Structures are given as C-alpha cells and as structure tokens.
Fold this sequence. Notes:
The protein has helices at 18-27, 50-57, 77-83, 98-107, 154-167, 184-190, 199-203, 207-215; strands at 5-8, 32-38, 63-69, 87-91, 111-116, 134-138, 172-176, 194-197. By secondary structure, it is α/β, with parallel strands linked by helices.
Amino acid sequence: MHAPIFAPSLLAGNHAKLSEAIEKIQRTGLDWVHIDIMDGHFVPNLSFGPETVRALRKTSDLFFDVHLMLDNPQEYVQSFAEAGADLISIHVEPDYPVADTLKRIRGLGCKSGIAFNPSTPTSAVEPFLDQVDLALAMTVQPGFGGQAFKTEVLGKVRELVGLRKACGLPFRIEVDGGVDRKTIPLCRAAGADTLVAGTSFFRATHPRDLIGLATG
Ligand code: DX5
Ligand code: ZN
C-alpha cells in the first residue's frame, strides 16, 4: 500500500554535530529523518527542542518526522510546526485532549501521527486512526536509543494492518526502537512500512545494506 520508508533517528547521531548527521542521511539517499523530542516527564530523558528543529530546517529539505514524547504535547505542537516539522506524532498515554491536538497538528499544516508504548493496547489508538497519517508502534519503552526490540509488539503491528484494511484508512505504520538487520525483516513481514532506526543506522559500516533490507 505504501512504499517502505527508512527513517534514521537523529538521537543516535553525534549531538555536537547534528548537521553532519543530517548530511549523512542525505548522502545515503534517504528522504526522512526521525527527530525524538523528550520532556523528562513522560520519558526519563531529555533530547532536543524546537530551536534544534528550526536550525536543522535551515540546512535540510529532509522530511522531518517529529516524535513528541511529552506529557503535554498540546502546548508544543505549534512551536514544532513553526520550526519546520513535516509530521508530528503525539502519544496516546498522557491525559490531554488527543483528538483536538491531532486536529491542531493538521490545522498547522503538518501530517499527524499517534504513538503508543509497548504496553499500550492497539484499542487505545483505534479511535484516532481516522485522524492520522501515521500510527507509531513503539518497539521499545521510549526514552533511550540502543534498547532491545520487543518482538511482542509485532502482534500490534498486525492488528494495525487489519484495522487499516477493515476501515479503508490510509495511515502509515511505523515502528521505532531496536530496528536493525535482524528485526527489519520481522517488521516488514508484520506489515510495518515506516522503519525508524537510530543505533543500527549510525553505527553501520554499510548503511545502504540496512536500507536495502528495509525497503527492498
Ligand atoms: C526511543 C526513540 C527512538 C530511538 C530509537 O525513545 O523514540 O526513536 O532513537 O533508537 P534505536 O534505533 O537505537 O533503538
Ligand atoms: Zn522515536
């Protein structure tokens, strides 16, 4: 249904040289970069802010896939949209007006995504699937790169594929966390079409081989 996309996660790049990380992605011939935003509350870590996105936007035409791991994303979607995000994903778990926030993301001219943690059932995102361009199934507990892929999430990817078909919806299905040479074939077989990879991309000696696995 969707051509597969491989989206490197900037979190695993050198934070002192983010523009070089972006250049590496561009040189490799990719179109997307995944940008993780953490608030130290929803996840026990901090990463980048809107100013980082704004500065990178000046150096790159890549599609900015911005993943907000925030307790109160409704307060920040406008900043990230104005900074240059192309797609903004928000999590379903915190207590805030999810549907309104998804509507605002689109109103700001961005594509929208709904993300959910490994322990959150697919039923939690189901009510929002007709409002999004992408459903993001976290394949690790969010907060840190370099964790082991949770195979049990593949069942939820298959559920998303089933719901997409049953409801005739166009959203992409993205997986994020522990995506590497071993797990890419599992993700593709389950039906994921958008694969985020941090550690495996930035550490790869031959990143094109990895991308070939994901998009071939
Ligand atoms: C985790 C982030 C991921 C992370 C993936 O909270 O959402 O995007 O960068 O990193 P790897 O690919 O190293 O598991
Ligand atoms: Zn992410």
